[in-house]
Structures are given as C-alpha cells and as structure tokens.
Design goal:
Layout: H1 11-34, H2 43-52, H3 56-69, H4 74-79, H5 83-106, E1 110-114, E2 117-122, E3 125-128, H6 131-167, E4 192-198, H7 202-211, E5 227-232, E6 235-240, E7 249-258, E8 261-270, H8 272-296, H9 300-335, E9 338-339
Antiparallel strand pairs: 1-2, 2-3, 4-8, 4-9, 5-6, 6-7, 7-8
C-alpha cells in the first residue's frame, strides 16, 4: 500500500530531505566524537554544536509533516527496516539516555567566562572553576547537545530514507490490520454499556456504518468525523478514524431485530494496552525525577516529574472520555438512532 498523497510530493524533494538529515547526523556524530578528545572544547566544536541544534526543527518537522499528512503509519516504516538498523537504533537510544544522565551529573551549571575568570552558572549562582575545569565543561556541554542532535537527526534520516523508498515504489506497506468483530467480551473497568434504537433494519445498519468507515485510519485529528474498524451482520468493532494512533476508546456491538427496526447493543471501552502505558509512564516519571535529584543533590525534578505524571494521567483520562462520547455520537448519527433502555 502506498499513500496516494505521497505521489504529489516531488521525489527529489524527499531525497533532498534525506540527504540533509543524513548530513546533519554525520556532522553531529563527528562533533560528538570530538568531545571525547582534547579538541572537544575548541571554539569550532562549540560553534558547530549550536549551529546544528536549530536544524532539528525544520528537518525533523518536515519528516513528521509528511508522515502525518499522508497517514503513513510509523510502525510500518520501522518494522520494514533491516535488523541491523533496528539494533543500532536501540543502542543509540540507550547511549543518548545514558549520556543525558551522565552529563547532568558532570555539568552542574552553564560554563561561563567573566573578566578572564571561569565559572559554572547554576541558576544564577556562579561556581568558580579552573581553566581545565571550564574547558572540560565546554566539552560536556557539547556532548549533551550533540547527543540530542544524534537522536533527532538519526530518526529523520532513517524515516526520510524509508519515505523515499515508499515514494519510489521500492517499499510497500501492508494495509493496517482491521480488528476482528468480537461482541461477547466481558465488561471491564471504565467500560459503558449503551443501547441504541433505530428504525433501520439490521441490514441497513450494516450498510450505513460501512459507509461511514474509512479504509485508512487518518492521522489528522481535525479531519471530519469518520469511523474505522469492522462492520458485518455479526456485529462491529469501531473507533474514530481521525487521529487513529491516539485513539483510546473503541466500541463493540451487535444488531438485534426489534419489530421493524433494530436494537443496537454496544459497549464503549478504553484500550487496555494504551491505558497500561499511560499508567506505567505516570508511575515511572516520579522515580525518574528522584534519580535525577539523587544525582544533582536537589529536589525539584521529583516535584516537576510528579506534576507531569498527574497532569498526563488526568489529561489522558479526560481525553479518553471525550473520545468515547464523540465515538458514540458518530455511531448514533450514522444510524439515526436514539438512546434506549439497557435491559
């Protein structure tokens, strides 16, 4: 499967994006390696470090726009990569995270020179250091920044390479798997049972819902409301198509003949895997903050990360409930149905 909109982007433009991302990555890698040598504190290294950093936004941003605008699923691009690239990517990610924590510990402040004297600026507090200490801090600062550059430019290079292959027909992605219809799952936490009543026959219900189902889940969250999933005479599994990768809610249900019309018995649920990820992330953030505080001798990180965890947990839950209500409204509108009584 090739996204139809991708053909409208000139192949040369995508190739240029790949060359730019790869060039930035190679340059960042060279600068990063030099930070481990006596040249790490040289002016040219510092200049290159901060010149490269703003390039992340147009290069990585362009890749994201192409992915989102053409509904290209990230998992499809990543799974089709050679095993060696996947392994190198995981190793790079692990290294950048380790480098981040180590540089935080070794760099208690911003290296600063004033009137021929050298300091580390720790939130306005100037900590005097020797010339060697100052030069080492410059190397650590460059290593911290180029670590981030390696990650973002590396992602941009790999993804733009895959997009170029997709654009030139050298890569084909499988269509997203549509879930099977399962209507007899037991209720779980945060699920909601709903009954809809409509004058449509069961066959008409199937036809109307199928007409509202998008073949490819959309990436833009602001597209017109459509559904994605499976609909048959046996029942349905549906979620909102827009922003499909961020959808937390889905609906399962079946059609029951009721006089001349139909009784639609459905359950609104939240995806367990995403909920576990959200809860797990919320639990790990305060731990990460505590680790950072233990290495820096402060207590701000644990407070900040705990606030982020609470905001993320509550925000995602509210987002899921809003999605669930919109999903019900979309199904109800497609069937021209009204709420009935749960038997």
């Amino acid at each position: 499967m090739q996204p139809p909109g991708l053909a409208r982007i000139p192949a040369a433009l995508i190739q240029l994006l790949y060359i730019a991302a790869a060039g930035f990555f190679i340059t960042a890698a060279a600068v990063h390696v030099l930070t481990y040598t006596p040249l790490g504190s040289a002016d040219v290294i510092q200049t290159l470090t901060f010149v490269l950093f703003p390039g992340i936004f147009p290069v990585f941003g362009a890749v994201v726009l192409i992915l989102v605008g053409n509904r290209i699923r990230l998992d499809g691009l990543m799974f089709s990569l050679p095993l060696a690239i996947k392994v190198l990517g995981v190793l790079l990610l692990a290294y950048v995270f380790a480098d981040f924590f180590l540089m935080f510990k070794l760099l208690p402040g911003q290296p600063t020179e004033q009137a021929g004297k050298f300091f580390l600026n720790d939130h306005g507090t100037l900590l005097p250091v020797s010339t060697d200490g100052y030069r080492q801090a410059l190397a650590h600062q460059a290593r911290l920044f180029t670590g981030h550059e390696l990650l973002f430019f590396g992602w941009a290079a790999v993804l733009s390479y895959q997009i170029a292959r997709l654009r030139n027909g050298k890569l084909r992605l499988a269509a997203p798997a549509v879930p099977e219809v399962i209507t007899d799952l037991p209720p779980v936490a945060l699920s909601q049972s709903i009954v809809l009543e409509t004058s449509y026959t069961p066959d008409q219900c199937v036809h109307e819902l199928q007409a509202s189902v998008d073949r490819i889940p959309a990436a833009f969250v602001w597209r017109s409301s459509k559904l994605w999933g499976t609909v048959s005479s046996d029942g349905f599994w549906l979620q909102l198509a827009q922003g499909s990768s961020s959808q937390l809610a889905f609906a399962i249900g079946r059609f029951v003949q009721q006089g001349a019309g139909t009784r639609v018995e459905l359950q609104l649920r939240l995806k367990r895997s995403i909920l576990l990820f959200v809860v797990g992330t919320a639990a790990l953030l305060p731990i990460l903050g505590a680790v950072l505080d233990a290495n820096t001798g402060g207590h701000n990180f644990v407070l900040l990360f705990s606030a982020m965890a609470a905001f993320g947990l509550l925000g995602n839950l509210a987002f899921a409930l809003i999605q669930r209500r919109r999903l019900l409204s979309t199904i109800q509108h497609a069937l021209n149905a009204r709420r009935g009584l749960v038997s």
